[in-house]
Specification:
This protein is α/β, with parallel strands linked by helices. Helix content is 38%, strand content 19%. α6 packs across α7, α7 crosses α22 and α10 crosses α11.
């Protein structure tokens, strides 16, 4: 059996059909067999016409009369009178004139469709029709519905899968037999047959459990193997300098939270081992990740090691450099900033300082991974907002050391436990789930766009007390065909309207780096009262005097992003406010009500994961598609089962190459999820 056989070799696949299948990304027999239904319609119960009720129904009948009418704009309506001996009913098809020729003669058919009241009468609308003498594809059964990629019809997929059914029956099982038995799973071939040709809802559930287990097992086994591979690496050992750490903590103008202390101690312990650290520091907005990274950089510097901190934007890199300079300079630890804005002689001088060891901590953007950057003794790498960097970019920075440096990946997007176990399974995880003492929860309120004038009054109250405000929009330029607010239009409106007496700044991604810095400097120093911005301020921007953020078209954002944006305020002891303005005056969704009720980023991340999938949290562009057709990363029970089996597989030192299909998928996940 050749699963790599091109679909052109399958009966019923001509040139035109092959084009359709290729456009949908289906090239081989295996591609089609593993193309799973997205939903099901239950037409398994055949009812007599005399007993029919509204809803999705299947009848067995013959056609007494059929006719075609042409109506406006070339549209056709085909109507038929169907009879099964108990009664008669009307069926109607729109733009399907071929039905008239199909239904001629005395043949009996299964008709499956929606029986409804329409056009002043009850009728069966757009039903499928298949001869009783043929093996039904779309009727008299639970009918699978497939994704209509590039217009691909479910009817065509079902028809071809009947041809491929013998292949499905004898598919080899990708999982070791012992795992299938111990987990009481359906055999792989049976599971696929049950999904493509289900006999009952219970069949579908058992089949989905089997394939979901496979997907999670593959992902978790990849993480375990990445972890095992990492454990064999040799890194720098950085001894614990208790005096240096104590002095650093004593010099802080605030007390560390318990969560910060725990995370810092975990990093210090990792430093002492000769296996390089591979740790993710995830913290809610404003939980103080930069201070933890600064403490670790101080520890590294005390043993003569350099640290590199890479951030995704110049604004964030500049902010980190400023914060770290204030934290580390009193201890003689030098901090350098390398971004695209550093040019000419200043850049060349910084290159020399990095290469000679004259700079202890280098903060930068992608500029850090350029060939011209050579480190003297790089021992510690921090990648902030790591999901914004690709695997290759992270590796380029790590390769700038003779030994594998200790890696701390940081994210301000809290990650649900289920996602952490699977996608980040190879990492040790530290969590900052406490806000600094004295910080008040941000008061969040949803607003109708019709009540904007009252909202401006509330913002003005804060400005009158000497505070500052953000106004966030999601587009840069006006677009007549798009109802989203653009920052430029909003900036002009506020300048001549409700806030014409205020100083207003404009910030967006198309500004040159120097212009961005000037705008941020004016806002940070209090020269501007309101900053109208795109989501470029989403992460890391820290202006304690800003107490109000207003987000236009808030319903167009994910919860994780709204929570990040909300975190631009509430960075001092003063009460702060977040106003979420809807696109229209309809009732807000349950999703948005969650952010109004909760300041807990971990709770909101779980809600986002359940509603929108892992892409929102994990980052799509640089990791590729996880391609989970069945598994959900919120199924903690199935994840726990798959994790136990993955760990047992690695502990038993089993040879993955014995299982070709499993090995291919695991290798793919290893590439997608590896952080270093």
């Amino acid at each position: 059996m050749n699963l790599e056989l091109p679909l052109e070799a399958v009966k019923g696949v001509g040139e035109k059909t092959a084009e359709q299948l290729h456009a949908a990304g289906l090239d081989t027999v295996y591609d089609l067999i593993t193309f799973l239904p997205r939903a099901y319609e239950d037409f398994s119960e055949v009812v007599a016409i005399a007993d029919i009720r509204p809803g999705k129904r299947t009848i067995r009948a013959h056609c007494e009369k059929v006719e075609i009418k042409r109506v406006r704009r070339g549209m056709t309506v085909t109507t038929a009178v169907l009879s099964d001996g108990t009664a008669k009913l009307n069926a109607v098809w729109f733009n399907q004139p071929y039905r008239a020729a199909q239904l001629k003669g005395d043949d009996e058919y299964y008709f499956s469709g929606t029986f409804e009241f329409s056009y002043n009468r009850y009728q069966l609308t757009n039903p499928s029709a298949e001869k009783v003498s043929d093996m039904p594809v779309s009727t008299d059964r639970i009918v699978p519905i497939y994704r209509a990629i590039k217009g691909l019809k479910s009817q065509l997929v079902r028809k071809l899968l009947i041809e491929l059914r013998p292949y499905v029956r004898v598919l080899p099982d990708p999982l070791p037999d012992g795992i299938v038995k111990s987990q009481k799973l359906l055999p792989y071939a049976e599971a696929l047959l049950a999904l493509h040709f289900p006999k009952s809802s219970a069949d579908i559930e058992r089949a989905r459990e089997r394939l979901a287990f496979d997907e999670l097992f593959d992902l978790l086994l990849a993480a375990e193997l990445n972890k095992q591979s990492h454990a064999s690496l040799k890194g720098w050992q950085i001894p614990f300098d208790q005096v240096a750490v104590k002095d650093f903590v004593a010099g802080l103008p605030f007390q560390l939270t318990d969560a910060q202390r725990r995370a810092a101690w975990e990093i210090i312990q990792d430093f002492e081992r000769d296996v390089p650290m591979n740790r993710l520091l995830q913290g809610d907005v404003g939980s103080g990740k930069t201070v933890v990274a600064g403490l670790a950089a101080r520890q590294a510097a005390s043993s003569g090691f350099q640290s590199a901190i890479m951030a995704p934007t110049e604004i964030l890199a500049s902010q980190h450099a400023e914060t770290l300079t204030a934290l580390l300079q009193p201890f003689g630890v030098t901090v350098g900033l390398l971004t695209g804005s550093v040019k000419g002689k200043a850049r060349e001088e910084l290159y020399k300082q990095i290469a000679s060891g004259g700079v202890d901590v280098v903060v930068g953007t992608h500029a850090l991974i350029q060939d011209a950057v050579t480190f003297h003794r790089l021992g510690f790498v921090v990648i902030d907002e790591q999901h914004r960097f690709g695997v290759a970019q992270r590796q380029q920075l790590l390769h700038k050391s003779d030994h594998m440096p200790h890696l701390l990946a940081m994210t301000a997007t809290p990650i649900p436990r289920s996602l952490a176990l699977t996608v980040y399974g190879e990492l040790d995880i530290s969590v900052l789930n406490e806000r600094p003492k004295g910080r008040k929860p941000i008061l969040t309120k949803l607003w109708s766009p019709n009540s904007r004038s009252q909202l401006y009054d509330l913002i003005e109250e804060q400005l009158a007390q000497g505070r500052q405000a953000y106004v966030i929009c999601s587009l840069i330029d006006d677009n007549a065909d798009n109802e989203l607010k653009s920052v430029q239009a909003e900036y002009k409106k506020l300048r001549v309207g409700p806030f014409k007496h205020r100083q207003i700044g404009l910030l967006h991604g198309k500004l040159k780096p120097a212009e961005k810095e000037a705008v941020m400097a004016d806002f940070a120093s209090g020269k501007t009262d309101i900053l109208v911005s795109t989501t470029v301020v989403e992460v890391g921007v820290d202006v304690p005097n800003a107490t109000v953020i207003m987000i236009e078209n808030a319903d167009r954002f994910g919860l994780a992003q709204l929570h990040q944006l909300r975190g631009r305020v509430g960075r001092s002891e003063r009460q702060s406010y977040c106003y979420l303005v809807m696109s229209d005056s309809k009732a807000p969704s349950k999703r948005l009500r969650e952010i109004e009720k909760s300041n807990d980023g971990f709770h909101l991340a779980q809600v986002d994961l359940d509603l929108r999938g892992p892409g929102e949290i994990y980052g799509r562009a640089q990791h590729g598609d996880l391609n989970l057709q069945v598994a959900t990363l919120g199924d903690t029970q199935l994840i726990a089962r798959a994790q136990r089996e993955a760990r047992a597989f690695v502990t038993a030192n089993r040879d993955l190459l014995q299982y070709k299909q499993l090995a291919n998928q695991v290798e793919r996940y290893q590439r997608l999820t590896k952080l270093n």
